[in-house]
Amino acid sequence: LDFLPFYERGSGGHSKILCVDAEGRTVLYDTDAGLLHSMPCLGTPKGPNPVSFSILDREPRDPGRADALYVMGRCCDYFDFEALMYCDPSSGRKGWRWHQLPPPPVPRAAASAVGCHALIHDEGDPILVVSSAKTSGVGTHCFNTSTNRWFKAGRWTLPFVGRAERVSELDNLWFGIGGGWPYDLCAMDLYSLRAAGAEAPGLAY
Fold it and tell me: Which has the higher per-residue pLDDT, 62 or 142?
């Protein structure tokens, strides 16, 4: 099982967890109410330790793109990328549904090379950032969640391993564990990654 944080509009906090098994079956657990809710299955299983991002408190451009959970597998020789979004009754389809999204424009074999990921979500469109291991030569790519388009930030890679999290109280920097020995806590400003061809951001700590 994988457990992915999922924040629903109006939930009042970080109170829901999406549980995903190896076959792509999902169930939503509300930690506040202690209830389980059935959810649609993933289009395809994502394998162990998928990359996931939850978009929270965004003003929707249309009713079907309010809040969403983005999940990307990174197994073996393929990327598989989907988003769980709520369909408004006016669209003729009510409820949560998975939507297939385009994979990063990189070789299929690079899926297992994703070393770290982060979400840029403050001003402007939310941007998902995935960065490969240094030895892969793939670099860092970003996904604009409003246009559903990928762009390459650069051939360089971010120094983190796993997820990097933004801490607004500490100069709006992203913090994560360094990807090499001695695995120090490090921080950097990732706002420059909103544009293609951005310079590699420098470490702040």
Answer: 142
